[in-house]
Amino acid sequence: MDPVTLEQVIEQLGQRRSDAVTTLELLAGYREQIERERAALENPQAVSEYLTFFVEFVSRAAAECERIAAALPGGIQASDIDSLRQLAANSSVEQRRCLLFRDKCINKPLPHERMRPLLNEISITTRDQLTAFRDFTRAADRLDSLIPPAPPPPSPKRGLDRRELFTRLFKH
User: Fold this and answer.
1) Pick from 46, 55, 142, 161: CA 20 to 30 A from residue 127's CA?
2) 3: helix, coil or strand?
């Protein structure tokens, strides 16, 4: 396998950011549809809150990608690696939110079945974006591999043994 370059990691982060922006555009369109069809939903507030959560979550992740990618040419920081790992971990945790949304809003008889495809699209879009964000673990690992190993600590000064001490003291 070829060694990873910093440019490849920056490109990877740029792709994740681009995906996030596309997801934000989709979520904005879904929000408009939900607002137009509010009366056809059993729990429009739950759908709206779900969308709001993911718009904020995806926006923060996109901003973090942009920030880290812009900072990387100046040097790899441990805090950036930690941020990427945290984003990946948060994305894994938020998969549960998608499942709960499906249980509460989709996987049951709906008052207006015509809303099911839209709700399904919302769920699939957020789930897929979370899955893509889990790729941040790989980006963090790649950055970690680019950090040169720390130099070994200097060897401690060794004291003189008894013979060396007397030899130095009484040399003349």
Assistant:
1) 142
2) coil
